[in-house]
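assembly run, all chains below
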Amino acid sequence: MRKTLAIILCKALRIIGKMVGKGSSLPGKYALKLCPDILARVQLPKDIVAVTGSNGKTSTTEMIAHILRENGKNVIYNAEGSNQIEGVTTFILANANIFGKVKGDVLLIESDERYAKYTFKYFAPTYYVITNLYRDQLTRNGHPMWVYSAIKESISDKSTLVLNADDPLVSLFGKDREGTVYFGADKLSSDSDTFTSVYNDMVYCPVCSAKMDYQTYHYNHIGHYSCGMCGYKRQNTAYSVTKADLEQGYIEIDGKLRIDLTLKSLYNIYNILAAYTACSLLGISGEGIAASINNYVLKNGRVITFKLGSRRGTLLTSKHENSISYDMSLKLAAEDTEGSDVLIIVDSISRKYFTSDVSWLYDIDFHLLESCNVKRIILAGAYANDLAARFSYTHISSDKITVFESIEAAANQLNNNNPEKIYVITCFSDKGKFLERVEVEA
Amino acid sequence: MKILHLYHVLMNLYGDYANISALCRILKTNGTEYSLDKKSITDELSLLDYDFIFVGSGTEQNQRLAMHHLKAYKEDLKEYIQRGKFALFTGNSFEMLGSKIQSFLGDIEGLQLFDFTVTEKAGIRKTSDAIFTLEGLDTPLVGFINKCSEIEGIANFLFTVQRGLGNSKGENTEGILYNNFFGTHLTGPILVKNPHFLKYIAEKLTGKELSIEAFAYEQKGFEITLKNLKQ
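ok done. output:
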């Protein structure tokens, strides 16, 4: 009875919530109050795929849903983005009938990495995809080891783990565990033999603390590694990116399938590979996956093209407090051989509160902009001065840099006839403040 | 002027390395010659050779690795501090110098240079913006705290808490000051974020009056943050 009431309450609140434009976690919150173990009582589809990790959760989940649907599966997933237990409850109950049977072939869940342990207390995903563990929102998450411990508590013996083999901390979840599926990239032409980022969280082996050897670095601590002391090393992969040509914009999976990229970043490659792996495990053919994901344009609004007067621009949604996300965007802007003007906006780090934490700016590799492709750099927002201070510790000439606390002034500065493309690098919390001043195309 | 950045990779969780960049800049722009060494857990240390030692924040696991290494140099560090030489330890690094750490990772003895005890709790992390005042400095400091520990038994504190977290729950004092040893749980680039504190430390260190003209952006950034935090 409680179950039925909880389902009806949740559905009703969701309808009301949608009418008044309120968030998606509230109905689930009340349903959980009424019936705390509701998620254990509903009848879920046979296949449950969960995705967690620091970065790439939303994009990977979106691509898995797209591939499965293109290949004839009925998928339900939390596209609304609420990825803690309340939001997950809302979307599961919204898709359940009043007897608690959830329709659909596959239940797909993007899960917050720290709160996954609460959601998966009640049911175990069939396939549990973990993308990566980086420094991300440390004001909230503490540090990657802290998040590792939180995710570890969410893992059930019943799940098959699907892990990024190239991330030593993520791979550790599969240590001494049978049946784990690994995905990763072979040595790529864009690799480096030496570590190039600002900080290195995997200098020491996460198992025995001896110095870790890397055979190749894809980016940051993602690569091929082995520990000479305890033998911990990168596992062989079941699904692999065998070639990546970022200039031409394509990858090759398992040496046979070509996928063309609209977003030419290493990040995107891992998201595609994670989605490819999950869908393969669900029985979709490699050809079927490749056909549906070829030239796929993410719908989640991470990359937005716009016009400012006569100039063309791209806004690369990056995450404040997440240096690797910034590094990826900076790399894209710096690699545009037709030339670029780069605007970086840090105005509000959190939508909820002001934070005086600027430590993450020092984790970003701003030296990536030290390229002849980059003509001008504009720093804007309430943290423009902190950004300028950070840049003063790079080798980038101050002649290239202009600083505005006002985003409007920064946008006006860019409204001219310079031939370079504009790249705007900022977060969800700040992008609207720029986009309202330009003509958004896609 | 010989500067040592100790555990520069291992204990660099919150951009702490930038404190050394700022210190080097104020010395350089004011014409003070200096040298900088970076040492880690595989290196031998001669702590008494230095005039300034810095250690930043780390994960609880990395702090243990650093502590294990630093224990071999306990007597040198004790003498270093007793002689009134300068050191700045940010984040959880100064916890290494207490009597013990009780933790979800297992209890462990500290270097025992100070009497305080540290208690770390699994799954409970405390974070906060901070406004702290320091005796002898007119302007407060701003910063951020990110920890999973409480510290009991510090009488000779460094800061008074106007906003944020003290050494232990409900306490309005933070950090530790002993001779010229400065320990605070403020994380990250506190010398960049607070140019007046950089000037304060560097002037004590050099015995000279120093200019922070080269830190104009930092100064503006500080003022905006202080204003916002006070709202």
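Chain B has one domain: 2-230.

The first strand of chain B starts at residue 2 and ends at 6.

not gonna interpret more than that til we talk
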